[in-house]
Hints:
Layout: H1 3-27, H2 32-51, H3 61-87, H4 93-102, H5 106-125, H6 127-134, H7 142-170, H8 190-206, H9 217-229, H10 232-239, H11 245-251
Helix pairs in contact: 1-2, 1-5, 1-6, 2-3, 2-5, 3-7, 4-5, 6-8, 7-8, 8-9
Amino acid sequence: MDSSIWFWGFFASVLLFQLVAIPALILKKNDLADVLWGPAFPLCALLSLVFSGTDFSTLDARKVLVLVLLTLWAVRLFLHVGWRNLSHRQEDVRYAKWRREWGPTATWRSYLQVFVLQALILGVFLIPVLWILAHPAWPLGPWAYLGLAVWTVGLLFEAIGDEQLRRFKSDPANKGRLMTTGLWSWTRHPNYFGEVLLWWGVWLIAMEIPGAWWTVIAPLGITFLILRVSGVSMLEELMRSRPGYEEYANSVSVFFPWPPKRKRPGLSRDPGP
């Protein structure tokens, strides 16, 4: 195992976020961290190979596969979130809310909570990828193909869910309403479900390399973060105030896709706004 890949992978994650922190703190635009988030994954993986002196011509199929998957995911995420944040002068509402709540401590809390913490989280999420890159070639087998299938389903859920929501929100008539059709009629958070699923797919691809079982801390961490910290739980709080939420919550699974429950006869429907 090439231990230098681990060092350079983690070093790159910290370095990239510090470089973005400088303009973000000056411009008071912490959502630049979201612009970096997706591209940071393949960049850190590639930089770990470059700085460790790896000969790219020696990369085996598993290494190439995981680099391609990371790049595809990162490009899609940047086009969906990153470009939007770059094109808007105003800071994303979540970060603006934190800035108001933090008051005079906003500068150093932004640095620690947004740019230091996210760099550390990225390093943890990269563990299965770095495990693959740091080890000698290992033939692709059933676990890798299963992981690829899981990753593909996850990306489709994330991409289709995001696109359905984008189209819904682009119609002014839907302002303040809940998205309840398409994938959103099977799970209240199809994009987050897809995000979690694709990272489990990456872990499965790493699983065939001896000793990789412990890298499960990465998909477990991603699942916990999305379900309990920054994803589902946060959005559920925002959704509760919208018309029709109770009926929607009672009929549609919060996370795992499941056929929606049929409305029982006699129940009235919230007409919405």
